[in-house]
Amino acid sequence: MNQDLFDSVRWMIGAIARGLNARHGEGVSTVLERLAEQPLGEAFFREPDPATLPVLRHLPQCIGETMLLDSDLAAAIAATEDGLRWRQSSTYSDAVLGEGFADNYGWAEIIGPNGFFAGDDVLLGLLMLGPDRHYRDHYHPAPELYWPLTSGSLWSRDSGPFEEKPQGSTIWHPPMTMHATKTGGAPLLAVWCWTRDVGTPAKLAS
Ligand SMILES: [Fe+2]
């Protein structure tokens, strides 16, 4: 086992939990309860094959901005960066989500089938979106929390108007709630968590 990577991943998960524990938005306590239930000992640690994506060109800027919000978490993400397995949803093509979307989108599981710990019906991960993107209306059975670590992202729920959320705010999507995310001139780095019913992927609105 790669002890350094294990220690960095545990540090990152701990930093996420500590950061969320200082917040009181809808769904935060559910996420913290589910994280506390996950088996995260050395015996459960796996090393996914690391993978990068074009959107990662924005990660240094995002980590720099995260330093201003939560320096402990920013450092933990930087320490774990080389071990992350960045992925994309297979149906999220440029044809569906706009020219250049695939070069400006990606997510990595921390806990989940492709993460460092398999978890028990939980996904915890990082999401990145490049500037000027529209991740349009979609929904899924899993309740979901987003915690944007950078500023300037805009969020819509139930196909309502987009609202800019400050860096460090939390956004909760109950099961099957339609939701969408936009970026402006800056890239987005966010922590995201599905707290249960993770087996059904997100579906874009037709
Ligand atoms: Fe979602």
Notes on the structure:
The protein has 206 residues and is of the alpha+beta class. The chain has one domain: Sandwich (Jelly Rolls), CATH 2.60.120. It is built from 5 helices and 11 strands, in the order ααααβαββββββββββ. It has a 6-stranded antiparallel beta sheet. It has a 5-stranded antiparallel beta sheet with strand order 7-6-9-4-11, with no helix packed on it. Strand 6 and strand 7 form a beta hairpin. The chain is globular, with a radius of gyration of 16 Å. It starts with a helix and ends with a strand. The mean pLDDT is 97. The site of fe (ii) ion has 5 residues, from loops. The site of fe (ii) ion (FE2) has 5 residues, from loops.
Tell me the fraction of residues in β-strands, as a range.
25-35%
The biggest beta sheet is recorded as: 6 strands, antiparallel
What global shape is seen?
globular
Distinct small molecules? fe (ii) ion
Backbone CA Rg? 16 Å
Record the strand order, biggest sheet.
Answer: 1-2-3-10-5-8
Low-pLDDT segments: none
What layout of secondary structure does this protein have?
Elements: H1 3-21, H2 28-36, H3 59-69, H4 71-80, E1 86-87, H5 94-97, E2 105-111, E3 123-129, E4 134-139, E5 144-148, E6 153-157, E7 163-165, E8 171-173, E9 179-183, E10 188-194, E11 203-204
Antiparallel strand pairs: 1-2, 2-3, 3-10, 4-9, 4-11, 5-8, 5-10, 6-7, 6-9
Helix pairs in contact: 1-4, 3-4
Fe (ii) ion binds near residues 144, 173, 179 and 202.
